[in-house]
Each structure stands twice: as structure tokens, then as C-alpha cells.
Amino acid sequence: MIEISELHFTYGATPVLDGVSLRLREGERVAILGGNGSGKSTLAEWLAGWKTGRDHAAAKGTVHWHGRPWQDYSVSERASTVQLVGQRPAQHLSGRAFTVAEEIAFGPENLGLPVEDIVWRRDKALHTCRLNHLAERDPFTLSGGEQQRLVIAAALALQPRLLILDEPFSNLDPESRVQTASVLRELPDDVAVVLFDTNPDTALDLADRFLLLHDGKIVAEGSARSVLLHPQAIETLGFSSVARCFIENGFGAPVGGQWSTAGLPLSLADVRSPRAEIC
Ligand SMILES: Nc1ncnc2c1ncn2[C@@H]1O[C@H](COP(=O)(O)OP(=O)(O)OP(=O)(O)O)[C@@H](O)[C@H]1O
């Protein structure tokens, strides 16, 4: 579906992406984890086509959607293919809508869709993101968590094949995180989701495939265990809360200088699984 090959990118003299290659399939749920400054937001913007080789001549490598580079697609083709939701929802609001419902309809209206399609998409997104009760509110009067759900709803109303989330929970309180996470878990199966985050718990909650970005390079890729227990992940991101809880209670205490993470549960699902499955 989307393929990045050997992407190199610098801001001035500072290398930010250093030979990143990545392939995503339809409907995949992928987490790309990395510490602050590892290049997550920059990679998210390349993935979404916000940055392209045309605007950044110094960049090397390619980003292809279904075999064609992003710059070959029109703005409206790209908008109905991929949506990027960042950490500050207010930055994504159009500023042209008086109500939540109008904000969600804004994108489909710009695509020139028939009115009945716009209304259908708007109402579906309001329902999916649990915003029906806020439909007539001014978007700028919403709480941060409500605004984040609105921005996700507005993105979904464009029916993207790929939804990119750049630390979508970073400014939310615990209750808003729970509500936003449950909206994300219930997204249609055919929408691919790429979550960029620093938090192993968030990734475990939403993803099936994991990658670790460090200093602009993918240094680990695969299952939750192979990535979240990679030494670089442990050093940069720490352990998931379930793993930390086990470790603090004596799990895997070094014996003869050796410290093992074999069998260490990462999530509540691991705790409920037979031990053999997580070794
Ligand atoms: N517009 C810019 N001009 C110069 N340097 C930039 C610019 N944007 C980002 N950078 C630098 O590029 C590097 C990667 O930034 P990026 O925002 O992609 O990382 P990140 O992993 O998303 O970080 P965080 O988790 O802190 O949001 C950082 O060193 C950052 O300072």
C-alpha cells in the first residue's frame, strides 16, 4: 500500500531520517516508537505526503503510495487517502466552522461531494467518535480530549485508507486517553493506522506490529516483545507499566549477573495468557 525506501532527510546540516525503509499493508495497525527527537514527527509528515521530494530537494529516497510518489497525487486525492492527526488538536481545526458538525463536514464539502454523502459521512463520524451530544458546540469550546476526538472524526469523514497518529494522547488526561483509545480501537478494519508514540502502553493497546526509531534509523521491527524488549527501547522508553510492575516485584532479578526478560509480561493480555506464549 505505502512503501518508503531508503529515506534520508536533514534539517540544514542536522540528519533527522537516516535511511528509513518501511512497507505498510492495508488495514495494518503499526506502532512506531522512539524517544524525543528520534524523528517520529518528521517521518509521520513524509508518510502523510506533507513533505515530499519536490519540496525538499536535499532529501533522498522515495515514498510511494500504490507505486506512485506522493507528489504525483493531487491534494484532494491525498486528503482522501491519508490523514495525519497530531498532538495539538486545535492546530488541525479549520477555523471556519461554527459547530462540531460543520467542522466534520468541512473536508467532505471541500472534496465537492454530494450533500447526502456529506451528511452521511458527518453523522457516521459523529457517531464513531462519540460526539453526537457535542454536534452543535463551537469546536474551540471543547476540552482537549473532545477536540482530539473531533479532529479524528474530521479525518475519518474523509474516509482515508491510512490514518497516522502522532502522539495523539500526549496532551490528554487519563479519562480522555481512555475515550480516545477506545475510539481508535474500534476503527474500521480496512483503515490502516500508524501510531507514533513514546509510550509502550499506548502502542501495546493499539498495534500488532512495532518499530523502533532511534536517531532517525529503524533499529528494531517485529512483534511487541522483539521491539519493546530491545535494549534500545528499554533504555529510551523504559518498560510498559505491566512489565515495570512485575520487575519492581522481583521478576527477572539477576542471577549470577544475568538478567532475563524471558516470560516477562508486557500487558494485561500477557498476564492472562499461558506463560509459554510470552517466553
Ligand atoms: N523545522 C525544523 N527545523 C530544524 N530542526 C527541526 C525541525 N523540526 C524538527 N527538527 C529537529 O529534528 C529532530 C527530529 O524532530 P522530530 O520532531 O521529528 O522528532 P520526534 O521524535 O517527533 O520528537 P518528539 O517526541 O519530541 O516530538 C529533532 O532534533 C528536532 O529538533
TrEMBL record:
**Signal peptide start and end residues:** none
ABC transporter domain mapped to chain residues: 2-240
* UniProt keyword terms in alphabetical order: ATP-binding, Nucleotide-binding, Transport
A GO molecular function annotation here is: ATP binding
Protein family: Belongs to the ABC transporter superfamily.
Kindly give the PANTHER family that the UniProt entry links to this protein: ENERGY-COUPLING FACTOR TRANSPORTER ATP-BINDING PROTEIN ECFA1, HEAVY METAL TRANSPORTER
The name this protein carries in UniProt is: Energy-coupling factor transporter ATP-binding protein EcfA2
